[in-house]
UniProtKB/TrEMBL annotation:
Pfam (any one): CdvA
Record's protein name: Conserved crenarchaeal protein
Region (Disordered): 206-245
UniProt keywords, alphabetically: Coiled coil
Length: 245
């Protein structure tokens, strides 16, 4: 489903408020925005906690539960790639079904199929980039989690040795555990996205039970004797895996 565009009316009310990522981490504060003449926000301006200024395009921004949320690069790309993959596969499935029922001439089928193949090739290139980003981010989080585990262990040792107060310990452990929780949520999102991408790359298309029943109705005498469309050299039908549900 397409995301609703950001509007000035909504975003301007949040200037000065904290900006987060989808996993609860603080990005900074919203200090300004840039918009088009139609009132849609083109990008937001965020001041990070170390006083750097970031200009973030609206495609990476959403308003959720009264908060400004900024998506990481990999998630922005994933949204585009998965949506494009799904559209392309649905179009290919529809084209194959029409051709199998002799509803379009072979020449038209061939032309449309080649165009869709070209579109899919571009999406696959983007998918390679996405997989690289996902792997890199997973490795980065795994490394960060090891450092957090080490910090938590050292903190507990210091507390048990009486080197720091209970108040300091509780404050510190809360920050460290919160960081690990955010990492855990992002890791789950990364792995879920990777699984979706893999299922699309294998050509899996979901068909509801209702649709499947309609497609499997007994063929009439005329349909039984209907000739199948001729195969076109150099073009293979897409693999379709039926998933009941």
């Amino acid at each position: 489903m397409a995301r609703a565009p950001l509007t000035v009316d909504v975003v301007q009310q949040m200037i000065g408020e904290t900006v987060y990522d989808p996993y609860g981490r603080v990005i900074g504060k919203l200090v300004s925005l840039e918009s088009d003449i139609d009132g849609t926000v083109q990008q937001i301006v965020v001041e990070t906690e170390n006083k750097d200024i970031k200009f973030i395009p609206s495609e990476a921004v959403e308003v959720s539960e009264g908060r400004i949320i900024v998506w990481p690069e990999w998630k922005v790309l994933a949204y585009k790639v998965l949506a494009s993959y799904q559209r392309a596969l649905k179009r290919l499935k529809g084209l194959e079904e029409m051709y199998s029922r002799n509803e379009i001439p072979a020449a038209v089928y061939q032309e449309l199929r080649r165009k869709l193949n070209q579109s899919l090739a571009r999406v696959r290139d983007e998918a390679k980039k996405l997989k690289s980003l996902i792997k890199s981010r997973i490795d980065e989080i795994d490394d960060n989690n090891l450092k957090l585990d080490r910090a938590i262990a050292n903190l507990k040792v210091s507390y048990m040795a009486g080197e720091i107060s209970e108040k300091a310990y509780k404050t510190a452990i809360e920050y460290l555990r919160s960081a690990k929780d955010s990492n855990t949520r992002e890791l789950e999102d990364l792995k879920k996205t990777g699984a979706k991408l893999e299922s699309l790359e294998t050509g899996t298309i979901e068909i509801s039970k209702t649709a499947k029943k309609k497609e499997s109705k007994p063929a009439s005498r005329e349909e039984k004797h209907e000739a199948k469309p001729p195969a076109i050299e150099g073009i293979q039908p897409i693999p379709v895996k039926v998933i009941e549900g």
